[in-house]
Every structure is written in structure tokens, then in C-alpha cells.
Amino acid sequence: MTAATVAQYVGRSTVALVQALRPRQWTKNLLVYAGVIFAGTAKDGDRWRDATVIFVAFCLISSASYLFNDVRDAAADRRHPLKRNRPVARGALSPQLALGTAALLALTGISAAALLGLDSLQYALGFTALQFAYTVALKRLAIVDVLTIAALFVVRAAVGADAVDVHISVWLLLCTALLATFLGLAKRRAELVLAAQGETPGRAALRGYSLPTLDAVVLATGAATVASYAAYAIEYAPHARSMAITVPFVAFGVARYVYLVRRQDLGEEPENVLLTDRVLLATVALWVLVAALVVTYR
Prior knowledge:
Largest sheet: none
CATH topology of the largest domain: Tetracycline Repressor, domain 2
Mean pLDDT: 86
Number of strands: 0
Distance between the termini: 65 Å
Structural class: mainly alpha
């Protein structure tokens, strides 16, 4: 094997490995900054540094779980029209390299979290264990699968606040849980529609769902998300009542997402919906801008 051949192999493996880490999914871990922003400590550089350590740690742990998941599900992924393009499923990344990298990333992420203290270490261990349990068993159980996803988002918000030593409102954690549940149920709805049309093989958990029930629960969870955020913004936020100006953005964003899911059968990948729909992306950007102005200058 020539040096050029080796270089090409290493280059292809590196590209495939980066793809398997799913860097687009790291946006979920931006939630660890919620504590810094909504506690009114956005001007504290040390807190931003600590939150960034947690952000990097959780990105590493998340990517480790994606690699582990792809190795376990490689056979099923090959039968899926979209997932068959994942590096492990298509043979571009060996299972051995994927599992070895997953172990290294998980250990590095947990060690990074440990630098901020015992509590952060415990959150990181719990996050890792919950990701592992989801991959191995929980994602096959209807309702439990979505609640597990919501719990992972709550852990992200909680560890971000704990790492920077600020109090985070229970109402904000509730909003996080409800929004994650809403997005998870909407994703299951999209998957159920595609499975019914024969376009994709349905995951095991879909046997416990029905389209009418999901439609009703998605609407109810979306309404509960908006209501809980309104309660937080009006009464419990650090800048209560001033934050109320951001409620219409949340209400419109949730309504827009429901429209996209029901009218266009989108939603199988929530992050793709957010990044491809300009109206929804603009709504989120405006919410971030207005919330930041309120927190900074109120």
C-alpha cells in the first residue's frame, strides 16, 4: 500500500468520522447557556467560560452516543432511505473505529465536566447513562422514548446553570421539558406518516402511537409550552413582565412548527426544519435578539 493510498484512506475515514459525529446536532447543547443568559449574568466572562466547558463536554458525550447508536443500528439503517447514508451504515466508517472513538469522546467529555466540580461530573455521568439507556432500550418504548429525550434537554439546562453557579427557574426547566416533548412528539408524527406511506421502515416505538392521538397531543403540548413560557416571562423571569414581549415569538414559532408538521409532513428531523424554514428561523432569531436586549438593558 503506497503512501498516497494510505493518505486517501485516512482522509476518507476522517471525513466519514466527522459526519458520524453529527455536528449539526450540537445545537441542542446550546441550551447549557440558558443559565448564564436568563439569570442576568451575561456580562460575567468567567461564567461564559465555564458554560463553554460544559458545552464542549456535552457535545463530546452526545457525539459518542451517536457513534454507539449508529453501530448498533447499522443493519436497520441500511433499510432506511435517509439513514442508510450514515457513515457506518454505508461502510465508510468501520464499527471498530466508531466504537473506539465513542469511548474516547465519552471519557474526554466526562473528564472535562469534572473540572468544574462534583455536581457537573454527576450531571455528565447521568447524561451519558441516559443516552446509553435510550440507545439500548428506551427508544423502543412509546411515550418513554419522547420523555427520555425531554429529560436529556432538562439535564442540559440544569447542568449549564449548575456549572456557572446560578439559579435557574423551575418554570424555565418546565418550558424546556414541554418544548422538547412537543418536538419529540412532532417527530414521531412525521415518522408515523412516512411509515404508513411505506417510505420508511418504522421504528419499534411507533407501534405504540396512532396519528389521531399524536395530532391531539402535539397540539396540547404546544399550547402547554406557550402557556408555561408566558407564566415564566410574566411572573418568574429575572426581568418579569419585560420578558412578556417575547411571548408572541414563542407562540408564533410553535404554531409555525405545527403548521409545517401537519401541512407539509415535515418534522422527522426538528433541527432540519429549524435550519431550512426561513420564517421559523427568523422567528427564533428575533426571539433571541429581543430576549437578549431585555436581559442586557432592563
